[in-house]
Amino acid sequence: VESDSINGENSTINNRDIIRGSTETVPARSGQIDVIVATSDTITAEEGSEVVKYLGSSRLSGTSASVRSSQLVFSRLVDPIMRTHIENEEENGDSKVKVFMTDVKYEHGKFNDDSDNSNGHIAGLTAGASIDIGRYTLGMMLPYDYMDFDSFKAHRTGIILYGQSKWNFTDNLSFGTTINGNYLYSAVSSKVFTANDLHTVGGGLSASLKYDNKGDFVPRFSISYQTNKDYTKSQTTNSLQHLIKAGSSLGYRIGKSAIIRVSAVYTRDVSSQYSSLNQDNDYVDVGVEGSWSISKDWQIKGGYNRMVALDTYVGDQVYLGSNYRF
Predict the structure, then answer these.
(1) Does residue 52 have a pLDDT over 80?
(2) Which of 3, 33, 128, 182 has a CA positioned 20 to 30 A from the CA of residue 298?
């Protein structure tokens, strides 16, 4: 803002568009300085931007729909916990339907932004079903999450469809591929900001390599590419998010009916649109989980996962689940 003169003349305002919204020029009398009166548009955040900030693909956190879907695909499909000795006794080649209710989970999350320290909780449930036909698998997952944070509450649900194939290079070395598509819907309410519903659409490709000589130790290396796009009522042209995940896990069989494993997964957001944001674009998931086979077809499992190396968010998650095949 500039004033052409202060003494002896009426002065004028040159608005340089530093702030958005309308302004009014108030002519000043001699010896006075002009005053800008800003309308409410100059302080109102863009409608829908806060929803995308917390639940969209512009942030890596447990509340993000794209992070949630990519974690489910990676941990439950691409790199699931390995089979116990009892499960390995199952005959291959027959069609098998697998019904599972897994990821009955609880997560405590905290945003660590300088401008917003918001704590909250996420409770979730994922149901799913798949059918094995030889080396191929077709299936779906139905996730649901309820999020209760200081600045917002949200219900999120959706569907993940996938297809998988498995190829045995040798008796001990196998290679698997996964293709998936997903849609997630988030219904948001807030007393702090204007809340719009959020739609997230995406999909990806993944691969894994496992060595299993039917002994006690089972290592696996996996990699995944996931892309997602967000839509709100007022924002429908957001750029695509591109996530790359790479991880390794090591399982150890205990007796015939149990197995434990540790895992570490590195995730990086390679989307160019986030290069200018003042936040991390990568993080690491570290976890431990175990599985107990009640029979060849029924397993109970649970685990703990922590999101680390991310400056803007910290999340601790526990889950309990079950698989049944018939």
Answers:
(1) no
(2) 182
